[in-house]
Amino acid sequence: MGQNYSSTAAAAADNGISTGIDVPELADISYEKSLGSARFLKTIRAKHADGLVVIKIFAKPPTIFPLDQYHRQVFHAQEALENIPNAFTYQRVIETDRAAYLVRQYLYSSLYDRISTRPFLEEIEKRWIAFQLLCGLRDCHAQVSLLTDENANVQVAAMSSLVQLMELVQVASPVNSHIFPDYILPKIRHFATSRNALLRATYASCIASLANTAARFLDMTQALRADGALPTADPEAETSDDTETAFQALFDTSRNDLISYFQEHAKILLTDNDSAVRRAFLRSVSSLCVFFGRSKANDIILSHLNTYLNDKDWILRSAFFETITGIAAYLGSVALEEYIMPLMVQSLTDPEEFVVEKVLRSLASMAALGLFQRSKIWELVEVVGRFTMHPNIWIREGSVGFIAASTKWLAPADIQCIIYPLVNDFLKAKVIDLSALNLLENLKKPLTRTVFDMAVTWATQSSNSLFWRGAQGQRTFVFGSGSETAFRATARDVHIGGSKIAKNPEDEQWLAKLRNLGMASDDEWKIVALREYILRMARSKPRLLSDSVQSSLSTTIQLQDLKIAPQTIFFNGWESIFDANQASKGIAKPTTVADALIDASKTIDKPLKKSTSRLQLRRVASDIRRQQRSVEHNGSQPGTGSSTPIISHTQSETNLDTLSTSKAIQIPRLSVGGGSGSSNTSPSSVENNHVLRHKPSKNSLLNRGMGPSKATAETSTVSATAFGKVEPPFARDNTKVVESVIEAGTEKPVYKFRTAHSYLGNDPFILKHLDGVCMQNYPSDIMEFGPAIVPFFRRAPIKKSNGRAVGGAWKPEGNLVASFGEHTAAINRVVVAPDHNFFLTASDDGTVKVWDSTRLEKNVAFKSRQTYKHGNNLKVKALCFIENTRCFVSAASDGSVHVVKVDFQTSAAKYGKLKPMRDWQLPENEYGVWMDHFKAEASSILLIATTACNIYALDLRYMKVLDSGKGYEPWNVDDESSEKMLQRFASNFKHLEPGPDRGVRAFVAQVDMIEESADGKTTPGFIISAGADKKVRFWNCGKVENSVVLSGLDVDEPKPCFTATNPTPGLTLNIERPAGYLEAEGSVGGSSSSGISGIKGLVTVSTGSARKKSQAGRTPRSTVISHQQQQLLKSHLDSILDVAFLEVPYGMVISVDRSGMIFVYQ
How sure is the predictor about 830, in pLDDT bands with cuts at 50, 70 and 90? Predict the structure, then answer.
């Protein structure tokens, strides 16, 4: 067949191999060339006097490695195949102290190469080759039987090949008509009782195919007898009229023998001790039922299959329900209702939830096939409906699938009058079409997993419970008991507090535990609906989930048993740094030529320091990726920090020279010639010996000190003429050029923390596991974003600038502390640091500014301490802090998200340069409008709400978006009461009429702490709101009459009053009223006039009093103008977009508006 891999080139000759055959036993053979070198065997071609030979060499390891067993096997095969012309074995088998040798004749090409190369074979030639292969297989099989081989893997492969081959046979010749009874069946008889479980499992999975194929061969044999091609008796005997009777008798006898054979083997496999064999047999059980017939299938198969449901292997129980549908469809409704259905309904209380899901899927399949009577469907729907409240989503989907499938064969009247009332109590809205999708969308909220597990513990540990004792007499999961005895769990009649459910004090304690775990009072009926299921399931756990018999999947695999030597891996936590942060690190780069000249003059005698970071080699790849993003986003680069108010650090042009650090660009050789001759010389080899000159450039000056040193271009004049072939000029779009160079010169990293541990292998699973271990023990977010700071925690009442009255609540006075106007566009967000030492503002001018809050008490600074430039022509729309750190996250209008660290020293209140740490990009035409960060266990999650109505959960450890289907459930607002949800709002009191926009654009809620007083200690809360009416309001939630407008009132505008009403017991409505509203309410309440007339009277009285006051003494016009000017400087002149509450150095309110102004009030 050949001696090397098909269609592969031979390796180069190795002189070391030639010395390997210098042994006395191979003295008549000389080395020619190598044909390949594998891990264990080396193959060479050598010369012999009779022709070429192939030698396979196995070099022995230094340790003792006996080859006697293999030598005997090869020698046995050599003897068995010696006289077979179509089998080619090794002529020599030699073993020495250093190696082992296998020698045979050399063949020019393999069969595959001959068939697939020209000239192609003719059809007759292919048939001849196939005939020779079959003859060789026949002769080899006569000497070495594969079905009786000692190797289990060979027997398994032989059985699988035999089954597939026999299934392909459509016509049998008279010679092969008795192949099953005379040859195949005797050869495979020992498989059913083999000691090897793999052999028995293979045979169990193939027994149905063998039985059906044997029956088909019997039918073909009978047809041959009927045609006279196969005689039934002595051909010399006289024929009689009973020939057809003899044919039929012989067929019946053969059929009975065949059934008896497979019946015996089926019983052996059905009762096998290994559950894997029984699971494999279940694959064949449906076809075997057809082979045996209904009567024998009930006696042989069904009687033994029922015992599988009591087995401790839950995988076997699940496999039973995967195949029971086909059995039920064949056996009919009688066997289904008498034998199968009672067991299936009982299995709905299986302690393994995966088994319950399989039962529900099987019931749905049977219902879709129409195997149930109408009365049985109603009974099953009543039982299955309660599983829609189960916490397992698979079980809920399975129950809904059965309910939807049960309506397939029912009349519309039965669906609306019988099925719908049975499931109506589990739906939150009326559904006309009981499809699976409609039912899933309208199901009530199920029990939570914690509440369900606690209920199971309650049923297991409470022996004197009256609550669970009432479930013992129920027969819901006894099929055929009748619907009158089954319990129907409804929201109207079932509730824990009702008189129908008996309970004792112990039950009340358990119910209190369930309520503490989050079970609402409206959800208590769900426990009652699943009460019998929970009780039966809890009691069956010791029987079906015994610890004495453990599944092979749940046991711990001992590596020592597998002869795997453990390896100790050492970690270096400081190397676990995310690569992306190197993209923005380095020395600050000058932005103009003038700045570069000043920088060069200051450091002319001081060479720039080179970074000694151990991760310096990663910077090149990071720079390339950064420049690629720059090209993709049209120059929008991640920014860097600065100590000046506004400095843009975006690169104005793409520097392709830096790409040379990854891979040298191939420069074609030039042919330089002069006079009559020409010679190939390098560019520096010139005839006139002119010195090459370095040409300075602006880029070299601006890039001074950036990264490793690079060779600069050299120029000179040459009198010779250059001839050569060069590549075409670059295209105008440099994107493709950059991408091609990057793809050719860099390798995309796959594992982030490969340099953080001592493992040197390349196993992807081990590397992935080590990445997870490194991230868990050395979380990069803590090391990079840290150190972690203690958030501001108030243990005393909020401070005031002028001291705090004892027992008084905090109330802002509205005095302006400072106003800042550095931003040149609208300010979208203002956020306060966790320790309240500084706050940030994000603006449409593309910057994020850092403001020192400690400088708001004394020596107020009207200048920001730091400015971060997000990018050119960008708008920063969202801003937040990483929890308990001084790192902030900003999102811009191009979809970019940046993580930046603020270097702040608490002791001296000093600010270092801002350090960009991470960057991420949202999809195209989408950007973030709101962000928030939180930590959950070991995760660091950034939530981003975007303009495309998407919410991304970004894990900052890996910079990957989390899968929404793993451990996260959406908040279903339809389940909340109307008092807890904001359903609609209007920005104007008369929203149907045009008028000024008074809608709230931002608010912040806080809690105050009141000192001890005679009335006790209370903790009232307050809300600070602002919006399009340019006013900032303080709402006192404890005493609404103490609310006030901080800023925005005109000079002659009266102060409003605030009232509170309670539409419902759980809802408090705080309302801002016009000035004098309370007096008007009092006058209207005492008179018989309407509310409208009362208000009009109020306006009239107010106007009259103002007229009398003006007559008494008019304010000078200059004074009014001065007051108006002062008021303009203290209030916002545009819509307020965000507010924040600051507690350092004392309680203050920060508000920002659309004109770019920041106001701080105390």
Answer: very high
Give the pLDDT confidence of 839-853 residue by residue, as tens digits. 999 999 999 999 998
200: amino acid identity, one letter: R
DSSP 757: B
**Which of 328, 282, 326 has the alpha carbon at shortest distance from 305?**
282
Q: Roughly what angle, to the nearest 10 degrees, separates helices 285-292 and 314-331?
A: 30
Cβ-Cβ contacts under 8 Å for 976 (sequence gap 6 or more): none
* Beta-bridge partners for 677: 674
CA R_g for the chain:
44
Helix (H) or strand (E) segment spanning residue 511: helix 505-516
Q: Which residue, among 1031, 635, 1002, 1000, has the nearest Cα to 846 in the 3D structure?
A: 635
Token reading at 565: 């030597």
Separation CA 563–CA 1038 (nearest Å): 71
Residue 1001's φ and ψ, nearest 5 degrees, are -100, -25
On whether the CB atoms of residues 895 and 927 are closer than 8 A, the answer is yes
Using alpha carbons, list the distances in angstroms from residue 921 to 691, 734, 896, 944: 49, 21, 5, 12
**pLDDT exceeds cutoff 90 at 867:** yes
Q: Is the pLDDT of residue 909 over 60?
A: yes
* CB contact at 8 A, 835 and 822: no
The two three-digit tokens of residue 85, written as one number: 């012309």
Q: In what order do the strands lie in the sheet with 671-674?
A: 677-680, 671-674, 721-723
Q: Is the dihedral of CA 599, 600, 606, 607 positive or negative?
A: positive
Q: What are phi and psi of 839, to 5 degrees?
A: -140, 160
From residue 97, give the alpha-carbon distance in Å to each of 62, 75, 101, 753: 10, 19, 11, 45
| DSSP per residue, 351-368 | SSHHHHHHHHHHHHHHHH
Q: Are strands 951-955 and 960-961 parallel, antiparallel or unpaired?
A: antiparallel
One-letter amino acid of 413:
A
Residue 189's alpha-carbon distances to 159, 179, 197, 207, 296, in angstroms, are: 12, 14, 15, 11, 21
SS3 call for 1135? coil
Neighbours of 567 (CB within 10 A): 9
Band of residue 897 on the pLDDT scale cut at 50, 70, 90:
very high
DSSP string over 162-173: HHHHHHH-----
Nearest to 767 by CA among 746, 780, 781, 749: 749
Q: Residue 78 forms beta bridges with which residues?
A: none
Q: Look at residues 953, 936, 935 and name the one whose alpha carbon lies nearest to residue 944.
A: 953
What distance in Å separates the CA atoms of residue 568 and residue 760, rounded to the nearest whole number? 12
Q: What is the pTM of this model?
A: 0.46
Q: What is the pLDDT of residues 637-692, one digit of tens each?
A: 444 444 334 434 333 333 433 333 333 333 333 333 333 343 343 333 334 343 44
CB atoms within 10 A of CB 856: 22
The dihedral sign for the CA sequence 450, 455, 457, 458: positive
614 vs 820, residue with greater confidence: 820
What is the biggest distance separating any 2 CA atoms in the chain, rounded to whole angstroms?
150
Q: How many residues does the chain have?
A: 1162
Strand partners, 900: 888, 916
The SS3 of residue 974 is: helix
Among candidate residues 337, 319, 315, the one with its CA nearest the CA of residue 328: 337
Backbone angles phi, psi at 518, to 5 degrees: 110, 5
Position 264, amino acid: E
d(CA 395, CA 401): 10
Secondary structure letter of residue 183 according to DSSP = I
- Spatial separation of the C-alpha atoms in residues 958 and 940, rounded to whole Å: 9
Alpha-helical runs (H) found in 102-196:
111-116, 123-143, 152-168, 179, 185-188
How many Å separate Cα 920 from the centre of its chain?
Answer: 18
Q: Could you tell me the sign of the dihedral formed by the alpha carbons of 501, 507, 509, 511, in that order? A: negative
960, pLDDT greater than 90: no
